[in-house]
């Protein structure tokens, strides 16, 4: 077992804590050694004090073509939300590339996207190709492919570089899934999440899809509470890494999210 120390990344809209990363833009070397290579997931806590850009991420095929890297499918679990906090999540209907470019030029893109109210415990799945943005007043757990590629469509006049042509080429007119309160599990080709409580304790042997290599490492993220994991102090937003076949004993009043890499070879 390894308890991970986050890497802090300050942004103009707030900050990110890279909680589990072997990505070159923010690598926890101790975690890379533990995982024995390039871990396929990147786990963050995002604190949004202002709205993020309206953006889109490429899928694996497009990312390979444009940047020679992984794509970026991700999900969000809402840790904290101020009253009236919202996410931009998908588009209102199918638009042509020309319509999207014209809306960006005329500063009317906001009328093309879905703005959805959210609260603590809500969950959003963001497959690559989905237009999205995080609104102010939100703190999120983000689980994603280990990729740092973002194409901004629109940045609210803040003057940062946008990537209109690449962004438009990556948009998929996906039917955005409904934002729901996270129940117990979620699974997609890239990751599986399981939420559970430890009252009064829980002992378990970690099982992953692979028996060796980086994808055989699972993570425990502390959503809430205080206690211990294998005798080590655990509190809100701590992350612990386990190799396949390792056991853990979680004790105390803890709510945990287990994160396991998916079946896709990366």
Would you write up a description of this structure?
It is built from four helices and 20 strands. It has helices spanning 29-35, 60-67, 97-105, 164-170; strands at residues 2-3, 7-11, 14-20, 41-48, 54-56, 74-81, 86-91, 113-117, 122-126, 132-134, 138-145, 151-154, 180-181, 185-187, 191-197, 201-205, 217-229, 232-235, 239-243, 247-261. By secondary structure, it is mostly beta strands. The relative contact order is 0.20. The protein is globular, with a radius of gyration of 19 Å.
Topology:
Elements: E1 2-3, E2 7-11, E3 14-20, H1 29-35, E4 41-48, E5 54-56, H2 60-67, E6 74-81, E7 86-91, H3 97-105, E8 113-117, E9 122-126, E10 132-134, E11 138-145, E12 151-154, H4 164-170, E13 180-181, E14 185-187, E15 191-197, E16 201-205, E17 217-229, E18 232-235, E19 239-243, E20 247-261
Antiparallel strand pairs: 1-19, 2-3, 3-4, 4-11, 5-12, 6-9, 6-11, 7-8, 7-10, 9-13, 14-15, 15-20, 16-20, 17-18, 17-19, 17-20
Task: Count every helix, treating DSSP H or I runs of 4 or more residues as helices.
Answer: 4
The amount of beta strand, in percent, is 35-45%
Give the mean pLDDT.
94
Structural class label: mainly beta
Tell me about the biggest sheet?
Answer: 8 strands, antiparallel
* Unreliable residue runs: none
Can you count the beta strands? 20
Shape: globular
The end-to-end span amounts to 23 Å
Rounded Rg = 19 Å
Q: Fraction of residues in helices? A: 10-25%
What is the string of helix and strand elements? EEEHEEHEEHEEEEEHEEEEEEEE
